[in-house]
């Protein structure tokens, strides 16, 4: 496909999802069985209504069975499934029902709370509906079929996805809200984070720990000693995930993260990509100045490229209490961010340094341990 978007002045090619791959391979199988001729290109309608021409390979067919594969093309968005082969087996049946399942390399749901029932193949509702509709359109109303989607590389590729966090084991998910992969888009990423939150809420959880990434997760488990069952990544989408916790009616949120990431929130920066907002040094300088720090310290901190480097200067000068001030500001800013919508959410914050460990928390750590065990 030749469809593009522009981002930061650069041109990026769009791609298509695993769901679109599966729909195209399934259609090719149906056509090969019906025509008894090899099909190498099919035209499919995506879940979002766009018509695409998709190349098909690895074809086999007989009177009632066929196999075809489509290579996932993520365009210029190189995700975990880009370049892998999505296979589909189709077998015609005497009944007019269409059955869809996943085979090797397609994950299965093991926990409640996502859009796939426990035990089912991880084929999300939108692509599932699209694949079945594509097959029905190809076969007509009187024929039926058994469809199996599989991906030989799926189990290995899934290690680079969030599937394990969602209780999906054994492989990748068949995804695609629109059927099109839009490069540089954060929407799919946000949605996957929301799904994990929704799963936790469905399981009855009323409090959740949000971390920016692996460092936060590791600190929660290995330093604080909390179960990682309560942990969900918020990545750089602090504001979005706080709003999601409110939408899902969580009562309490504990944010645990490296100081270099969370310090931005104290100044009202709720999307923490460094490329979009990097005011770490300025925030530190302003708060140190309010505590009466000498100009010489402020000038040295302002020159630091990292909060770890600044932390050495701050500790040596005896101003480590600045972290207590900032962590309270993170809490206040976050609660103010949510205060105009109900229900209310109680927020606490823990921040740390990779070099110096725990820096500050809005409550005594032992109190938090009692509340979050």
TrEMBL record:
Transmembrane segments: none
A biological-process GO annotation: methylation
Single GO MF descriptor: methyltransferase activity
Reaction(s) catalysed (UniProt annotation): Co-precorrin-5B + S-adenosyl-L-methionine = Co-precorrin-6A + S-adenosyl-L-homocysteine
Pathway(s) per entry: Cofactor biosynthesis; adenosylcobalamin biosynthesis; cob(II)yrinate a,c-diamide from sirohydrochlorin (anaerobic route): step 6/10
Pfam families in the record: CbiD (PF01888)
InterPro entries documented for this protein: CbiD, CbiD_sf
Enzyme Commission code: 2.1.1.195
Keywords, in A-Z order: Cobalamin biosynthesis, Methyltransferase, S-adenosyl-L-methionine, Transferase
Domain of life of the source: Bacteria
NCBIfam families xref list: cbiD
Family, as annotated: Belongs to the CbiD family.
Record-given protein name: Cobalt-precorrin-5B C(1)-methyltransferase
Protein's organism: Listeria immobilis
